[in-house]
Amino acid sequence: MxxxxxxxxxxxxxxxxxxxxxxxxxxxxxxxxxxxxxxxEIRIPNIHKWKVGKDIEVIIRxxxxxxxxxxxxxxxxxxxxxxxx
Length: 85
What we know:
Layout (H helix, E strand, L loop, with lengths): L6 E11 L9 E6 L8 E5 L9 E6 L5 E4 L5 E3 L8
Antiparallel strand pairs: 1-2, 1-4, 2-3, 4-5, 5-6
């Protein structure tokens, strides 16, 4: 994969998870359309206050952050760091 390459995936907000602590933002569980069972969902902060069923796009870039957008401003999500054993 090229360093400047990225992939855009269509997704839908499947569930909104409220955090028990009030000052922590809710999380949106996002389901990717057409993805394999083990790789079809992620959870990101729901700063845009998306509702269940909202169609969004997720942009993934290698070694950077994933961006989720519904056509407006993007939402930045930190990429998970992997440990090498």
